Amino acid sequence: MNFADLGLSDQLLRAVNESGYTEPTAIQASAIPSVLMMRDLIGIAQTGTGKTASFVLPMIDILAEGRSRARMPRSLILEPTRELAAQVAENFEKYGKYHKLSMALLIGGVSMGDQLAALEKGVDVLIATPGRLMDLFNRGKIMLNGCSLLVIDEADRMLDMGFIPDIEEICTKLPANRQTLLFSATMPPVIKKLADKFLTNPKQIEVSRPASANLQIEQRIVECSARGKKDALLDILRADDVTTAIIFSNRKTTVRDLASSLSRAGFKAGQIQGDMDQGDRIKELDRFKAGDITVLVASDVAARGLDVKGVSHVINYDVPWHPDDYVHRIGRTGRAGATGKAFTLATPEDAEAVANIEKLTSTKIPRVAKAEVAPARAPSKAAVSDDEAPVEKKSRVRKRPGAKSNEVAAPEAREPRPAREPREPRAEREPRPEREARSERESRPEREPRPEREPRPERQARQDRDPRPEREARPAPRPAPISDDGPDDGWNGPMPDFLNFKLGS
DNA sequence: AAAAAAC
Where do the record's region annotations for Disordered lie (predicted)? Predict the structure, then answer.
């Protein structure tokens, strides 16, 4: 199967080609022809499957005919978060480079000026989060009766976020004879009802969850006490193959605390969470993409769909409340055929949440104990027993530098180690994650580059198979001699065994 | 339980 077989225009194929892609993913192969035939569509899929390109590509060709009129957008894409909306907009720019389509990105947190100006001129594509869209609509700045193509992306996420009433209202403002595409990772009854109400004879396409079936991601549960989390985190971050990591926490406050603790510990760390204003969110994300920061501490605002290349590790500092979120979070690594590791720090209280995750993904995630992790670190710390110390209830992560057990160890604070090659395989100590036949069957092998994970247009084809295409600005990975004793980087302690499993193979 | 999304 080739992109050329899907009925797309030559200009579009050229843009796709120049992005380095030749072979469509499963969802693209089945969705694109139907969308081009103007059928309604239900796509049970999430990002990482090539979902975005499966509607962006045919939309570009559909919209290539016809003209936009002032305040009457011709198509509308709804996204649950601002970041996702921005990402879809980037896709339109990339694949629409040989088309003259106009676009407006309507998201909150930024000034309305540009958005209003774009609307006034008339746009072919509106990419929006519901809040800002409704706001502008209620101000009379948008007419939706010329909008003949609607995409509802991440519908289940919209549900979680309470957007369904907004979505329904928006649907009623669009012409009835429109084309509607709905994407959702799951199909809870509310979403099913929504689809029945607003879609006509839709074609249904289902592709597997990429993360649960993604053999490129090595997963581990790190069993630790609540107080041992920070140490475990540091050990992971100092492991030799961590190049860039996203650390997820369940709370915005924890995100903030961790980001500042890690910065103080010498990591190039940043954060992204919903209390930050949009400008800062974008800035942090850009710094992360550019490699100015190598550790991004994030709330679940970044869990879904976020496409950053070359993330070597995802660390769940907290076990996510919803098992779905786990799948989304770890899907931030192992992208574009690269390998990745996902660690989840779990306390005994997290047992149920962990069980739910394993049930959802139908895998047993190997456990490693935090006890083995805590290496003799700095002499100054020796006095403090880390393990069964009296429980401190409320004390947040840290107070003053020099505070004890919960402190991120500062004495040996330094740059995290530079990127380098994965270590030689050692004697295999950890059980390998189960790899069932079903994953093979369900998941497309992740070898081919895919449109959703493309290096930016200016850096193309050459890097197709480079797991970290956007990061050449950084110090090049040093082919450092590989010593089983761990490198001499000032981290005085043995490499914790649990970090020492090998990727791939 | 938490986070996200409009001014």
Answer: 371-505
Q: How many residues are present in chain A?
A: 505
Which nucleotide is closest to the Cα of A353 by its C1'?
B1
Ranked by mean pLDDT, the top range of A119-123, A276-280, A391-395, A432-436 is: A119-123
Q: Which nucleotide is nearest to A251 (CA to C1')?
A: B2
The Cα A466–Cα A481 span in angstroms is: 22
Least confident of A48-62, A101-115, A361-375: A361-375
Instruction: Determine whether domain A3-206 maps to CATH 3.40.50.300.
Output: yes
Helix (H) or strand (E) holding A12: helix A10-18
Q: Characterize A106-137 residue by residue with b for buried, 16 or more Cβ atoms within 10 angstroms of its Cβ, and e for exposed.
A: bbebbeeeebbebbeebbbbbbbbbbbbbebb
pTM (predicted TM-score): 0.68
Nucleotide nearest to A249 (CA to C1'): B2
Q: CA A416 – C1' B5 distance (Å)? A: 35
**pLDDT for the residue numbered A503:** 37
User: Residue A218's beta-bridge partner residues?
Assistant: A341
User: CB of A152 within 8 A of CB of A161?
Assistant: no
CA of A251 to C1' of B1 (A): 10
Q: A217-420+469-499 adopts what CATH topology?
A: Rossmann fold (3.40.50)
CA distance A18 to A95: 9
**pLDDT at residue number A130:** 96
Domain with CATH 3.40.50.300 in chain A: 3-206, 217-420+469-499
pLDDT digits (tens, 9 = 90+) for A130-158: 999 999 999 999 999 999 999 999 998 89
HEC letters along A170-231:
HHHHCCCCCEEEEEECCCCHHHHHHHHHHCCCCEEEECCCCCCCCCCEEEEEEECCHHHHHH
Q: Which two tokens stand for residue A161?
A: 């976020």
Q: How far is the CA of A244 from the C1' of B2 (A)?
A: 25
> Which 8-state DSSP code applies to residue A144?
-
Q: What pLDDT, on the 0 to 100 scale, is given for residue A337?
A: 67
Looking at residue A301, its pLDDT comes to: 87
Which positions on chain B have an atom < 7 Å from some protein CB?
Answer: 1-7
